[in-house]
Amino acid sequence: MTGARGWFLILATIWLCLLAVFHAFPQIDIAVSDMFFVQSACVPGELPGRVCGEFARSADFALQILRRVLFYLPVAFAIVLIVVLVRNLQQHGATYCAMRTRNCGIALTALIAGPYVLVNLILKSLSGRPRPYETDMFGGDKLFAAAGSFDGACYNNCSFISGEAAGAGWVACLIVLVPARYRPLVAPPLLLVTLISPVLRVSFGGHYLSDSLLGFLSAAVVYAGVTLYFEMTQTEKKRGPSTIL
């Protein structure tokens, strides 16, 4: 249980266990979202029994700006990695670093495979889970759907799981690219910054706690999976016969 294989199995198991907990106890999501929901009196003419109110923090201008900055943080890091990769590929002989190419390739592949393909293109399109502000208990008109149920009334860009949290989780995974001696200094502030985005999504009513937590962790699962794939293909190449030209 060491290396990429061990990390992948551990992280994937944790992800599945958390999903099972949130699915079995949906009241956790409801209670956390309710902490940020401010209920108010409905205007005359509203349907009897309708819940009115808002997630007040979503209207905070400073928090909106912060969210927008953090939204583009993965893109900024991706651009840096692409520049590093291109410059390294332009090197020859002793100045070329195969490990740098491998590390950049893993990171960029994990970004595409995780936050963009798995989360935004697949899960958010198929999960069917309405966002908190869309549900009737928080001022919306849709019924609540538990995490992982895939039977909600949302048809596109749904709540399960958070794409922004997945992007933030990918940035947190970049700690593996930092030299080991500097990780104790870099890891705490990096983790703190990357956790802001998932917290904001919950406080804005854009996602439930499970959406943000599982989204953040999904990036680590995919990153470990991609690393494992690179290691396996590299091992296969070493085992295979040399090509004679």
UniProtKB/TrEMBL annotation:
Keyword annotations: Membrane, Transmembrane, Transmembrane helix
The keyword Transit peptide appears for this protein: no
Domain of life (superkingdom): Bacteria
Protein name per UniProt: Membrane-associated phospholipid phosphatase
Transmembrane annotation, as ranges: 69-86, 106-123, 160-178, 185-206, 212-230
Stretches assigned to the Phosphatidic acid phosphatase type 2/haloperoxidase domain: 108-231
